[in-house]
Structure formats: structure tokens, C-alpha cells
Amino acid sequence: MIREEAQDTHKNPVPAVDFIIANENNSKILLVRRKNDPFKGMLSIPGGFINEGETAEDAMRREAKEETSLVLEPIAILGVYSDPRRDPRMHTLSVTFITRIVQGNEDARDDAAALQWVKIEDELDGLIQSKQIGFDHPKILNDYKRWLKSSRSSVDSSSCLTFWSTKKEQTDEAMQVKATE
Amino acid sequence: MIREEAQDTHKNPVPAVDFIIANENNSKILLVRRKNDPFKGMLSIPGGFINEGETAEDAMRREAKEETSLVLEPIAILGVYSDPRRDPRMHTLSVTFITRIVQGNEDARDDAAALQWVKIEDELDGLIQSKQIGFDHPKILNDYKRWLKSSRSSVDSSSCLTFWSTKKEQTDEAMQVKATE
């Protein structure tokens, strides 16, 4: 471990959280209409940076409050996205949670110009194809659709897939490499 | 999103990777006998920091080569561990991968004094209880045991649990909150 490198500044990606907020029957997800650059005016998954001294899950709860007024709890980690090109400002690493709404009603705040419920089946693909979604969030949202499909097809309630930036789209093969082998 | 905070140094946790290396039938995992502080002489899961410009999965592959001479590929993300107290030197955030060995034979290098295959069923609990494992790796290893159990009990090959620092031990209830509801 080259632990020394971490002591020097700007040598590590900046960790952030993004969080998928779905409605009760998982037919819609809540996206943010961005007030500021980058991707000003476009849609994104809500999220923000993790501060020193707080856990990723606490950063998620704080940012959810700040951006949407909602109280969220994590259900699962969808993936970790760390492609150096995913954010035009700097190299960021996103821990992406799948969450459930515990309390509150959505209300746009902070750098969210507006919040928008998007239908996963009918609307999301169109928004992605017309390039209305910023960052690498089209990839994250496609991964979430696969996660949803996987969790719906499984008999036990603990199923999930996990994803990362360079994971191949054809993951069925990779998924065969399993603990049960 | 308080994006500005990320520009200031030392305001964010330092991202790192840890990686679970199991043998073919998942009866043993490979731990590192630490050459240097912290936890010098103790065992830990292999890992290291993520450099700016590389993905988490590339950092995993690089550190695996550097510490163990093994070529690894990620199978899944076990969890993200970001308790500010998990590393005595600084606030770190670990993306913990479950991996498979693609190539090579284990050979201790870098700051690994030695590598040690530990039997998951017979040895691991004893090492944890006698406090021979550093960082928050006892928690990570216990989570991995739960992941293994979950993946073995599932009919489809895509099952996995995901974990984070503050996730409650009694996750059965949390796991009921599912996409299928």
C-alpha cells in the first residue's frame, strides 16, 4: 500500500455520493433539474460530496435533506463509479446508493432548480437518448434498471447486482463467477 | 451539492480499495501480515489508496499486483466502509471488492511482510476474537461471511448483499425493503 500518496493533496479522487430515490412501486425515480454548471439545466441523480468526518451514508442523508427535503435510508449500494472523466471538474468517485423514502415530501432546494419524477419504463430511455441527463448518470440509471430487473426476478429478498465504471455490459458471464462455484 | 468543499484540501475522506481474495471453493481467504504501522505485525485484508486518474477497480488490480503478485478481477462490491475512525491515520473510505484470481501465484511484496491463507470456517473467528486483524477489517470479514452465506442460499447467480459502516447487524428487516415491494 502506497499510503504516503494519500497524504499529498490532489492525488486521490474526491469521494461523493449519488442516490436513487424511487417511488413506492419503483415505477418512477426522482431526478434533479440542475441549477448550476456543470450540466446546468439538465437532469441528474441527486448527490454531493462526502465531507471529512462523515460516512458515505450520512453524506447521502445530509445531501438528500439539502436537495430534496426528504429523509432517506439506504437499501443497497448499486455501485461505485470512478471513471476519471465522469465529472468535468475533477476526478470524483461516486458511491451510489439505492434508497427508500422514510419521511417528507420532495421539495427542491440548494442547487436543485426543480425535482422531477421520471417514469422508468416510459420516459427514462428517451431522456437518456436525447442527452438530457448529465455526468455518467445515464450509465448509472441503466445499471439501476438492471438491478431492478434482477431483484424482481429473484426469489429471496437479498438479491442485488453491483456495478462499477468499467464493468462490461455483458455481465451475465461475470455473474456466473460466483461464490457457489 | 456543496461542490465547493471538494476543492479545498483535507475536506473529504481519502478513497481506498480493499479486496477479498478467496480460494476456488471459498473455504479460505488471503490476508496480509503487515510490515508497517498502523497495525504492524497484524493481519489485514489487502488494499491501498486510489490514485487520481485511476478507477477503483484499476487501483484494486494495481495494489493486488504490488502486494500479492496476483492478477485479480472484481466479482462484486461487498460494501463501502467510511467510518471516520476506521483508520487511525486519517479518514479513509474503502470500496471493498470481492475478487477472483485470474492469474499468478501469491507472493508477498510491498508492505506485506507475508501472505497467509486463512480458513473462513475454522480460523477466521479466532483471529478476530484475539484481535489479530487490523482496521475495521473484522467487520468487513464478518460482512463477507454473510455475503457468502447469502450467495450460497440463493438460486440465481446474481445475488449479493451490500454493506456500509453503519448498517445494522440485523439487516434482515432492512433487506425486506425491496424492489419487489
Helix content of chain A: 10-25%
Radius of gyration of chain A: 17 Å
Identify the overall geometry of chain A. Answer: globular
Distance between the termini of chain A: 30 Å
Order of helices and strands of chain A: EEEEHEEEHHEH
Mean pLDDT of chain A: 86
The total of helices of chain A stands at 4
Oligomer: homodimer
Major β-sheet profile of chain A: 5 strands, mixed
Sequence of strands across the biggest β-sheet of chain A: 4-1-6-5-8
Largest Cβ-defined interface: A-B, 80 and 82 residues
The computed structural class of chain A is: alpha/beta
Number of DSSP-assigned strands of chain A: 8
Strand content of chain A: 25-35%
Describe this structure in words.
The structure is a homodimer of 181-residue chains. Chain A is of the alpha/beta class and 181 residues long. Chain A is 23% helix and 29% strand. Chain A is built from four helices and eight strands; from the N terminus they run ββββαβββααβα. Chain A has helices spanning 56-68, 124-129, 137-153, 171-176; strands at residues 14-21, 28-34, 43-44, 47-49, 71-81, 92-103, 112-119, 163-164. In chain A, the strands form two sheets. Chain A has a five-stranded mixed beta sheet, with helices on both faces. The first copy, chain A, has a three-stranded antiparallel beta sheet with strand order 3-2-7, with no helix packed on it. In chain A, a hairpin with an 8-residue loop joins strand 2 and strand 3 (43-44). The longest helix of chain A is centred in the C-terminal third of the chain and has 17 residues, at 137-153. At the A-B interface, strand 1, strand 4, helix 1, strand 5 and strand 6 of A face helix 1, strand 1, strand 4, helix 2 and strand 5 of B.
